[in-house]
Amino acid sequence: MKKHNNIGMSRRDFMKMGSAVVGSGVLSTMIDSDRLVLGTPLPLTELDREVDSCCQFCQVRCTTKVQIKDDRVINVYGNPDNFWTGGSMCPKGISLVELTYSHDRLLYPLKRTETGWERISYSEAVNMTADRIAKVKGDYPEDFPHRVALFMPLWDCRESELAALMVLKMAGFPDALSPGDCCIASTNVVFDICLGNPNSPTTLDEALNTETFVLWGANIAEMYPPYMRWLVMAKEKGAHLIFIDPRVTPTSPFCHAQYRPRPGTDGALALGIIHLLIKEGAYDATYVEARINGFKALKEAVEPYTPIHTAQVTGLSPEQVVELARILGQSRRTLVWLGGCLSRYTNSLQTVRNIIALQAITNNLVGTGKGLMFVQGGKPGGEDEFIEHYQASNLESKLSARKVLYNMKKGRLDVLLLNSSYRRYPDADEVKKRIENVPFVVYRGFFMDEEAQLADLIIPGTMPFESEGSQYGAQRQVVWREKAVSPPGETSEDWRFYVDLGRRLNGERFPNFASSQEIYEALQKKDELWYGLTLDRLKKSPTGVTWPYPKTYSAERRGNLFEDDRFLTKDGKVLLDFKPLGAICWFEPEGSPKDKKTKDAEEFPLVFIQGKVVQHWQHTYTNWSRYVAQMSEGNFVQIHPDTAGPLNIQENDPVHIETKVGKLKALARITTAVLPGVVFTPSHPTPANNLDGNVGQSVNTIVPGYWSEVSAQFNGFGCRVRKV
Predict the structure, then answer these.
(1) What is the number of other CB atoms lying within 10 angstroms of the CB of residue 696?
(2) How many CB atoms lie within 10 A of CB 36?
(3) Which of 100, 123, 151 is the endpoint of a domain?
(4) Are 502 and 576 members of one domain?
(5) Are 391 and 170 in contact (CB under 8 A)?
(6) Cis before 460? omega within 30
(7) How many C-beta neighbours within 10 Å does residue 551 have?
(8) Is the dihedral of CA 397, 400, 404, 410 positive or negative?
(9) Is 646 exposed, middle or buried (0-12, 13-18, 19+ CB in 10 A)?
(10) What are the DSSP E strand ranges found in 224-325?
């Protein structure tokens, strides 16, 4: 079998990317200007104790060991007994030691006054928040439900998210905005419709049983570096690794082949592959007949997607389209990992469905070495029912993020509980203006960042080492984090703040939870699929416990979520033809310079994409770490030599990336890691701190406000680059 490798990259590019991957293992972290501590175990004789914990940044959920001296964390390292990570960590988790003791950290509640910030007590802050929310109900007794909104808490534990939802919904306010609006909500929705469950259905250990492992937009080395060990082990067992991504990344050298379609055309590529498989009879007709609803509509949809047409759309050659289709058609066991980037286009619903269809018709959804994966693996099935038990009767339907933002613009939002970054939204400067239009903004955070600067009241939270709670991970595992040290000042856990607020707003009706453990057990006992995930099991496991784990199971079960080829849809079959999703098809991302409907395509002829780097979790508080700043470059833009040449742009030239809503200054990086006509820039820089490498303009200030039916778009639209 020919293994086509089009990973074109220079030695300089490879060395830079390789160092990032190597850096995901043993790394050091500065917790004081004069003390350097390695992210490897210190001798127990130098410690008072060691506590089990986990990192909260991404859904790898690296379990960790926290080393403590004099009630102070002096080191953290990966738990060597973790089945998924093998004890590895990435720079983000290690930076938490420094961030916990940062001189810039907020330690006391602050309220804005005419002369500046005034320190107040925690109880005053809770009362002030409750009074402002109660005032909304008093001022608008017939029209209050959509006048209070919440940006959901992210950085404490799952129990905090539950408590926050309970507070709002019990008080009659439905509008809690999930980060999924700007992340992988499209993937969740399509999986729920087509397969009957919104979570990732396959665990990563199936990589060791697969014949072909497709990383479709999944840049594992930068996004989830502890999982790279599974790619290595899969290769050692003979798996053929294919990377489908327009950009050469640190993941590329680990794969046998890379296919680089134009950004936003993944759905068309899937249709082109399906076209050839149907034409050549290289699909499982018996399985299709028995287990799939909508094959006729799929067959009609792929008719135009010949290899030549697919090549014209994607930028691949017809030979590459045929080659990839035949590899997948001949593979007896194929595992596909969908990257989060696939959700970040306005055509994402169609793209994800098309990839599900590809796996379905080849009988690769269920079984050893088969399946689909993405990074959402742990939301319990009984959560909604649990919340409904507490919510107000006749609670109005939740508004979409766009409608909440519209209410801000029109002055119809009176209180905003801001627990996470507004900079996660496209056209972020416009979002900022709308938040400024809200009379009372309460911020739960850690630093005087962009969100804190918009607040009327700041109630600082605890860092992960200072609280306990559960987190769910990408492998359907639930992990437990123990409290390691006492919180400083008057910082408070998110769950505690929302319980206190709930009691203040709702009185005795709100459960008087005394700990996050009580919240966890209240949910766990209500959810049949989590019956075996007892708190005792969680605390004893170095890895976490995998669900489903109902009463009928004697032990946890990894692998595939579905049993006996029965999906969790109404009739147990894959549902492809579903009217609310629209016809099975593909279309250009909104604002694409290749789209005939884009009026300013000539003015903005380049395709814009953005993404994460290994040392930062987007525009979050990792930007306040000096440690990761040493490895960061601030705003830069990757440009292909063929694109840069006519623009007279050379390496390190300052340039502006310009879109229809703004411009961003960056340093040019001339590289074949991006395709001609495409530019890439990282997501992390923010202006609030002053650390070289971290400081910069927020990238979403230049991202136009394009939305699909479900989530926002961040890639695939037109831009231009001009030399400053």
Answers:
(1) 24
(2) 11
(3) 100
(4) no
(5) yes
(6) no
(7) 8
(8) negative
(9) exposed
(10) 240-244, 257-259, 292-293
CB atoms within 10 A of CB 555: 8
Burial (CB count <10 Å: 0-12, 13-18, 19+), residue 622: buried
Closest to 615 (Cα-Cα) out of 14, 57, 42: 57
What's the rounded Cα separation, in Å, for the pair 419 and 18?
A: 35
pLDDT by residue (tens digit) across 410-441? 999 999 999 989 999 999 999 999 999 999 99
List CB contacts of 506: < 8 A, sequence separation 6 or more: 167, 170, 171
Which CATH number goes with the domain that contains 218? 3.40.228.10
**What gap in Å lies between CA 330 and CA 632, rounded to an integer?**
42
- CA distances in angstroms from 8 to 223, 307, 461, listed in the order given: 21, 23, 46
Give the phi and the psi of residue 14 in degrees, each rounded to 5. Answer: -65, -40
Give the length of the chain. 724
* Residue 183 pLDDT level (bands cut at 50, 70, 90): confident
Alpha helices in 224-378, H assignment, sequence order: 228-236, 266-279, 285-291, 295-302, 307-314, 318-330, 348-361
DSSP 265: -
Q: Show the beta-strand stretches assigned E in 553-705.
A: 574-575, 606-611, 636-639, 654-659, 662-670, 678-682
Residue 112: strand, helix, or coil: strand
In 3D, which of 206, 130, 197 has the Cα closest to residue 170?
Answer: 130
Of residues 649 and 4, the one with the higher pLDDT is 649
| Token output for 327 | 């590899």
3-class secondary-structure state, position 44: helix
Structure tokens at 547: 């669900």
Residues 550 and 531: their CA atoms lie apart, in Å, by: 5
Instruction: Fill in the amino acid letter for 269.
Output: L
Is residue 670 helix, strand or coil?
strand
Other CB atoms within a 10 A radius of the CB of residue 500 amount to 22
pLDDT band for position 27 (cuts 50, 70, 90): very low
Rounded (10°) angle between helices 401-409 and 428-436:
50
In what helix (H) or strand (E) does residue 336 lie, and over which residues does it extend? Answer: strand 334-338
Query: Of 546, 561, 593, which marks where a domain is finished?
Result: 546
CB 303 within 8 A of CB 275: yes
What the block records as the tokens of 677 is 């006509």
* Residues with Cβ within 8 Å of residue 178, at least 6 apart in sequence: 152, 185
Q: Are strands 477-481 and 545-546 parallel, antiparallel or unpaired?
A: antiparallel
Do 229 and 365 lie in a common domain? yes
- 559 part of a folded domain: no
165-175 pLDDT per residue, tens = 999 999 999 99
Residue partners of 175: CB distance under 8 A and separation at least 6: 145, 146, 148, 149, 150, 168, 398, 399, 404
The residues with which 440 forms a beta bridge, in sequence order, are 415
User: Are 31 and 73 part of one and the same domain?
Assistant: yes
